Amino acid sequence: MDKGALVVQVMDDSSNGGVGAAAAGGSFSSLRAYGRALAQTPRRLARRACAATSPGEEMSRVRARSGARMARRLRWHDLVGLGLGGMVGAGVFVTTGRATRLYAGPGVVVSYAIAGLCALLSAFCYTEFAVDMPVAGGAFSYLRVTFGELAAFLTGANLIMEYVFSNAAVARSFTAYLGTAVGVDAPSKWRIAVPGLPKGFNEVDLIAVGVILLISVCICYSTKESSVVNMVLTAVHVAFILFIIVMGFWRGDTRNLTRPADPAHNPGGFFPHGAAGVFNGAAMVYLSYIGYDAVSTMAEEVERPSRDIPVGVSGSVMLVTLLYCLMAASMSMLLPYDAIDTEAPFSGAFKGSSGWGWVSNVIGAGASLGILTSLMVAMLGQARYLCVIGRSGVMPAWLAKVHPCTATPVNASAFLGVFTAALALFTELDVLLNLVSIGTLFVFYMVANAVVYRRYVAADDDDADHRRAWPTLVFLAAFSLVALCFTLLWQFAPAGRARTGLLAACGAAAVATVGAFRALVAEARRPELWGVPAMPWVPAASVFLNVFLLGSLDRPSYVRFGFFTAAAVLVYVLYSVHASYDAEEGGGAGAGAAALDGAKVQDEAADFKV
């Protein structure tokens, strides 16, 4: 794009926007200005809710709002290391015990395989976006260029929620494993009970707070150095993982795969709670795959996105899925599923073994190390999400600032570090995990829909291609409805031939819907560098699996998710839409300055595609 033309456009926009909110100092300059902005809320919602940016704008004008650039120093092996470090600790060492004990039993191995397949399909969708538009915003940026600002904001709110809640859960689990490593059996001995607070919020964990704050300082310092530290810690951590797998298969008993410790009160078999338990377990352990999403947020700091991102994202998901399944199998062989410690399942498996107590201590130390790496990667990712959300104008601009010396989003990193530490101070795991799973599934579902929409509709600024919007939207809605019908039948229909027939009919309808869409609607664009294979079958399968796993979660999860989403909508209506309007349409000289900065870096956007 010609920079001179961009400057002329900026000047025109600035002169047209000089009257109104910006001329008066913006929507938040005074109570009276805010009152006038609220009165214009319906009109601003109509203008901003579906307003979409282009990939070029995201990589130039929007990115320029951060000031200094993030340094592009990461390669594919850094991404694989970040993926390993981010996923393994958070998944196996937090959720496996609960998923096995409460839902899947030894069938948790299959739960991890299902969740891993779902994550891999979603990883393909993320990779297409990340290669084509290598910015730090991840799913937020992908949905902003596809479905517009409101969809992106709700997704961004869920992303921040899932990262903060996940990190708080993992940090509290660190206390349990650290205690095991030094011989303290109960984590409550290291926590301070607070009388009068409700259960689940009444134990203060100062160790978790300290760990989060320390990691926050590290990631503010340097991304590349944080990656090097992560690689070292991950290498040691993988050695612990191999030790756990070997010990499980050596010391384990295959009879534990089918025999509970208390057969009088708990069912037996490899799938003690049936297929429903396996899928419920898959929905819970899906928390383990948040790490690859964090890897996609590093796209702005990757040397060669077209080569490094596909290997880093998809490769790390496949490798981690294999490790998860092997570790879950070894744990299931060590103990009957109804005797597993839900807070520290692996180290707890050796507590009662004569002469093998030292193994429990070693596993506790390894798990603590893995949790540190997962926290570091996740906190790197959450800071970049919030940084790009700040760039978009829907959150305060100071969150978007990149420090010129460290080339990191210092403000976003510090803010989220303090917020996560505050949450980890009080809240227990069972309050956090299901809400995290539902947020993760919702975001992955949205990205899978977005990659289909963009491939079949969103050809930049070409009105002719927008005629494909309605057929594509109808397909996405119809396919989601079929997936929802299948899920409801699976969950609530009584067992029998009628249920089997209806499930088969729904499956056939899903296949027919995708086949008809593929035959009748042509793709509007093809990716230049890397694209999802077998379009639209792969993203459609991701949509179906995400809807199915969402249906496996319990009612309280949806109640919490509904309240959180309603709160996010309220924030958007009362604050974000007005801040965005000021930044994009009523910004006067401020908007002009930002766009002029964008002109300076417009020619750099192509460099990210190398």
UniProtKB/TrEMBL annotation:
<dbReference type="GO" id="GO:0005886">
    <property type="term" value="C:plasma membrane"/>
</dbReference>
<keyword id="KW-0472">Membrane</keyword>
<feature type="transmembrane region" description="Helical">
    <location>
        <begin position="355"/>
        <end position="381"/>
    </location>
</feature>
<feature type="transmembrane region" description="Helical">
    <location>
        <begin position="529"/>
        <end position="551"/>
    </location>
</feature>
<feature type="transmembrane region" description="Helical">
    <location>
        <begin position="228"/>
        <end position="250"/>
    </location>
</feature>
<feature type="transmembrane region" description="Helical">
    <location>
        <begin position="557"/>
        <end position="575"/>
    </location>
</feature>
<comment type="similarity">
    <text>Belongs to the amino acid-polyamine-organocation (APC) superfamily. Cationic amino acid transporter (CAT) (TC 2.A.3.3) family.</text>
</comment>
<feature type="transmembrane region" description="Helical">
    <location>
        <begin position="141"/>
        <end position="161"/>
    </location>
</feature>
<feature type="transmembrane region" description="Helical">
    <location>
        <begin position="204"/>
        <end position="221"/>
    </location>
</feature>
<feature type="domain" description="Cationic amino acid transporter C-terminal">
    <location>
        <begin position="530"/>
        <end position="580"/>
    </location>
</feature>
<dbReference type="InterPro" id="IPR029485">
    <property type="entry name" value="CAT_C"/>
</dbReference>
<feature type="transmembrane region" description="Helical">
    <location>
        <begin position="79"/>
        <end position="97"/>
    </location>
</feature>
<keyword id="KW-1133">Transmembrane helix</keyword>
<feature type="transmembrane region" description="Helical">
    <location>
        <begin position="473"/>
        <end position="492"/>
    </location>
</feature>
<feature type="transmembrane region" description="Helical">
    <location>
        <begin position="270"/>
        <end position="290"/>
    </location>
</feature>
<feature type="transmembrane region" description="Helical">
    <location>
        <begin position="432"/>
        <end position="452"/>
    </location>
</feature>
<keyword id="KW-0812">Transmembrane</keyword>
<dbReference type="InterPro" id="IPR002293">
    <property type="entry name" value="AA/rel_permease1"/>
</dbReference>
<dbReference type="Pfam" id="PF13906">
    <property type="entry name" value="AA_permease_C"/>
</dbReference>
<feature type="transmembrane region" description="Helical">
    <location>
        <begin position="402"/>
        <end position="426"/>
    </location>
</feature>
<feature type="transmembrane region" description="Helical">
    <location>
        <begin position="109"/>
        <end position="129"/>
    </location>
</feature>
<protein>
    <recommendedName>
        <fullName>Cationic amino acid transporter C-terminal domain-containing protein</fullName>
    </recommendedName>
</protein>
<feature type="transmembrane region" description="Helical">
    <location>
        <begin position="311"/>
        <end position="335"/>
    </location>
</feature>
<feature type="transmembrane region" description="Helical">
    <location>
        <begin position="498"/>
        <end position="517"/>
    </location>
</feature>
<dbReference type="Pfam" id="PF13520">
    <property type="entry name" value="AA_permease_2"/>
</dbReference>
<dbReference type="GO" id="GO:0015171">
    <property type="term" value="F:amino acid transmembrane transporter activity"/>
</dbReference>
